[in-house]
Amino acid sequence: MVWLSGGMFAIACLMILSLLAFVLWQGLWTLWPRNYSIYSRNDGSILGGELYSKQSIDGQDKLYLRTGNYDISSRHFAYVSSLELSDETPWTDPDLWLVERKEWGNLYGFPKDLSWTKSAPEEFAKHVALGLQETSKIDRQLAVAKDQLKRTDHQIAQARLGVRRVELAEKVDLQNAVETGSVEGLSELAKRAIERLAERNLRADEAMIQINEQIAELEAKRSERSIVFELPIGQELGKLDADWSELSAGKLKDASGFATLLGIESDDNGAGISEQQISVKQVGKGHLLCKVQRQNEPVRRLSIRRLADNSASVSTLQEHSILLADVVRFFPPNKLGFLERLGIYASRWWEFLSGDPREAGMEGGFFPAIWGTVVMTIIMSMAVIPFGVLAALYMREYAKSGWLLSVIRISINNLAGVPSIVYGVFGLSFFCYIVGGYIDGGPRKAGFTPWPSPVWFSALAGLAILGLASFAVSVLSGQAETRRSPFRATLRWAGGLLWLATLAGIVWLLIRSPHFEGFYQAQLPNPTFGKGCLLWAALTLALLTLPVVIVATEEALSAVPNSLREGSYACGAGKWQTIHRIVLPYARPGIITGFILAMARGAGEVAPMMLVGAIPLATELPLDGEFPFLHGSRSFMHLGFQIYSLGFQSQNSEAAKPMVFTATLLLLAIVTLLNQTAIWLRARLRKRFETSQF
Amino acid sequence: MNRLKAIADGQTFESVIHPEVLSREPVVAIKDFSLFYGRKQALYNISMPIVKGLVTALVGPSGCGKSTLLRSVNRMNDLVESVRIEGDMLLNGDSIFAPSVDVIELRKRMGMVFQKPNPFPMSIFENVVYPLRIDGQRDKTLLNQVCEQSLRGAALWDEVKDRLHESGLSLSGGQQQRLCIARAIASDPEVLLLDEPCSALDPIATGKIEDLIDRLRGEYSILIVTHNMQQASRISDHTAFMYLGRLVEMAETSTIFTRPTLSETEDYVTGRFG
Ligand SMILES: Nc1ncnc2c1ncn2[C@@H]1O[C@H](COP(=O)(O)OP(=O)(O)OP(=O)(O)O)[C@@H](O)[C@H]1O
Ligand SMILES: [Mg+2]
After folding, report:
1. Which of A230, A385, A464, A621 has its C-alpha lying 20 to 30 A from A498's C-alpha?
2. How confident is the model over A82-103, as a mean pLDDT?
3. Does the structure show a pLDDT above 90 at A206?
4. pLDDT at A491 over 70
5. C-alpha dist (Å) from residue B151 to B107, B157, B166, B195, B219
């Protein structure tokens, strides 16, 4: 038995550890800058990429390469088997550059020329860095201009909404008036709204011309500077009349053969290319890369492959030009020392944590997702804490124990085990469609038929009487706590029931009201709150974590020794005084623990998020510097959902895999951090009670 | 022994209360008091005075209802859901169980100390002034004054005066119990109820508490439950012997321990049964 249980324990530990190690390894490794290796294939062609992983299957190695150059090869990653390679040791060319771009992902190639300056290849890095400072300035100006454009659009939309509101309020059709501009016979309000729209339109037209001009100008400036690269992809030039074995030994019998192939004119001395100007590097058994470096000319690279008859075929490398402004990061990966790699690694992590996504989230940062998760979790906590703590307080301190309470307690425990997608479905159908629809467009939009006005008003009067009655009853039964009498106890029950009935009546009247048309009717049919958004996501999660909070709080409360409560009562304290001076402070560590566990659970929950508001790419943050700062009706990005959508929903999920691991690591880190904080906080608060200062 | 057997059989029984007890002015007068936990009766028609300014000890075998009686005086039994009572008690002439009585106000007129020390999870200072705090007292000088007075009264001042703002839980068991006594006397109560205050303490701490009770005599009227006959004889002026929910005999302590009226009392206090 010892062996069996011990073995099981060991297996469990192993599984958990290997999961952690796997995520940690994959997540940490993804952003590390690797060498760019060029492999030569049996057919003589070459394939280059950053080696991401290598698996041995059936005596052959499977290499997983990040090939980049998506705009040319239309793939980011490639699998290649070692059987296809003529040589498994790759060639790592020190002159090769990696350029991380704002669009199209990574580019790997040999820089050939800078369009804006003549400079030696050694100086390229310096010039690019200098140039980037200027282009980033242009980009900032562009962003400002585009922001202005957006604001103008927003103002027009706002003015249109104003007109629509008047239409709704006065039940008139202003479409015609808006188009023709004639406001004869319309109300003062309508006139004002239409004039306002016209004025906004006019102003916007002027501004728009100006801004668009500015944008065009900036765009033009932006595309002025470009870098020409030679990519490690060949374009056949022709056959070289030379023997392969001599070529690969670095000997050239006839440099003029090259010159002819390349179409190079003789220089003043009458020679084409001299042997010294050509350096040859063996890439694989059947492949050479050669560099032609003539004075006052950019370096040219050629790819030479061996043909069946032992002669060689020459290709120029394909040229590709990219805009300087699209460059995010550039460096020669094969030339880097450890510290430089570390620097790039750190800067990539920084971008990952604080930057915006690029390439539909496959590159760049996760900041919006992190931010969305954090904001949503905080709102969720603010919703769940008061509810959970008060409910637990009622169950533990006020309610009389009995079968009803046991049933409720068991149900709450079961609720904690309900699959989260169920909450998602509930959130979508209740919060988004019913509550959200009600807020947007009143009862009708939420699917309720309003009552006719007279009926509604008589119901309102009835409700008022009911409310007064419950108030009177509670006043009569007041102080029941200090004085015992069966009559008062009954009265208290009746009071409670009456209050419940009043509450139900209020809700009923609200959903049957003929006088409420929603706060966002003018925006319809575009939903404002009647769709997945931050608020509903937070409330759904609050519902989901409510059992966790209630159970933890109840446990914390029941751990408060009864002797403390008795001591307090004996001092003449009332129920509430005892609770808030003795019970709650004593239970606080436990309550906080439960709260953080709930937060950790909520932060990692994905399934309901898919239904109630998380989207793969949001242009706006749910909490930003724009009035009213917190935008409850916005959809948002969520870390857990991001992992799902990147890994399984994006067009190129294979390519997104490394990013998925990094995001997983981040999510794991956040959840672990929350849990650790809970444990630490609990220990600290406990200690405080036991010994140290207050 | 036959009287005890009669009690066990449920026959009616007349308590013996010596006239020297009845002749003094009571602070609490228990009048024909019975108490039921649900259907189970725990106290049977108890009538007895607790004399002003003296220490009254309640003794009796385990489960005879001493704690129940003590907790009835400040109506702590109200917290038990199934409790029902008959009869009444008077605190300085005011009824304790009349429906119009505000329990909270009533409890403020008494101090209570439990078997196990139960200091609150707050500083020593806050522990002592807790009864004033719940009355909303904020006057710093008054609180300081009450704190010092009560701690001196509980013979704890010298030991804690430099660490008033440390947690009450950092004290030793005996100190904690004296802290609870300080808390109980902070609101200047009319009666002090002590339920086996020394049973969780070592002999030295017990000695200190006993000295303290001795010092409080005269100033406060004290009702103390104890299992320790020596303790009862050392510290109390009056002793009441209870058995199975009845008061058997009550007299001056010296009388109970040397020449009680009933042989059963003598058997119990000399340790021949119980
Ligand atoms: N909360 C309660 N509910 C039901 N019965 C109770 C409760 N408290 C006490 N009793 C019963 O009332 C009787 C008297 O109990 P009580 O605690 O007053 O005895 P005691 O004399 O203080 O005993 P001890 O010396 O062991 O403390 C016992 O039979 C006990 O079982
Ligand atoms: Mg007891």
Report:
1. A385
2. 86
3. no
4. yes
5. 21, 5, 15, 20, 15
DSSP state of A78: E
**pLDDT at residue A100 is higher than 50:** yes
Arithmetic mean of pLDDT, A397-408: 86
For the cut 60, the answer to whether the pLDDT of residue A480 exceeds it is no
Of B111, B112, B123, the CB nearest to A694: B123
Say whether B79 and A569 touch across the interface (CB within 8 A): yes
Average confidence (pLDDT) over A200-223: 87
**What DSSP string describes A613-656?**
TB-S--SS-SB-SSTTSB-TTS-B--HHHHHHIIIIISTTHHHH
Distance A403 CA to ligand 1 centre (A): 25
Confidence of residue A482 (pLDDT cuts 50, 70, 90): very low
Interface list for B 153-172 with A (CB within 8 A): 165-167, 169-170
Contact indicator for A188, A232 with CB cutoff of 8 Å: no
Nearest CA residue ID for atom 12, ligand 1: B42
Calculate the average pLDDT of chain A.
85
Ligand 1, atom nearest to B115 Cα: 27
| CA B197 – CA A376 distance, rounded (Å) | 53
Percent with pLDDT over 90 in chain B: 47
* Average of per-residue pLDDT across B82-91: 90
The answer to whether the beta carbons of residues B32 and B87 sit under 8 Å apart is: yes
**Could you say which ligand is closest to the alpha carbon of residue B65?**
1
Q: Could you tell me if B129 and B140 are in contact, meaning their C-beta atoms sit under 8 angstroms apart?
A: no
Query: How many Å from the N-terminal Cα to the C-terminal Cα in chain B?
Result: 12
Where are the extended beta strands (E) located within chain B?
16-17, 26-37, 40-51, 55-59, 83-91, 94-95, 110-113, 191-195, 221-225, 238-243, 246-252
Retrieve residue A292's tokens: 């032609």
Angle between helical axes of A534-558 and A584-604 (0-180°, round to 10)? 140
Claim: this prediction has a pTM higher than 0.80? yes
Cα distances (angstroms) measured from residue A221 to each of A209, A647, A678:
18, 37, 53
Residue A466 clears pLDDT 50, i.e. is over it: yes
Note the helical H segments in A223-313: 244-248, 255-262
Measured in Å, residue B96 CA sits from the centre of ligand 1 at: 21
Give me the sign of the Cα torsion angle A432, A434, A437, A438.
Answer: negative
Choice between B68 and A265, residue whose per-residue pLDDT is larger: B68
Give the pair of three-digit tokens for residue A1: 């038995």
What does the longest C-alpha to C-alpha distance in chain A come to?
A: 122
CA atoms within 13 A on the CB side of A439: 16
Tokens linked to A463: 């409700």
Among the listed residues A225, A618, A546, A538, the one whose alpha carbon sits nearest the alpha carbon of residue A374: A538
Contact A483 B103 (CB under 8 A): yes
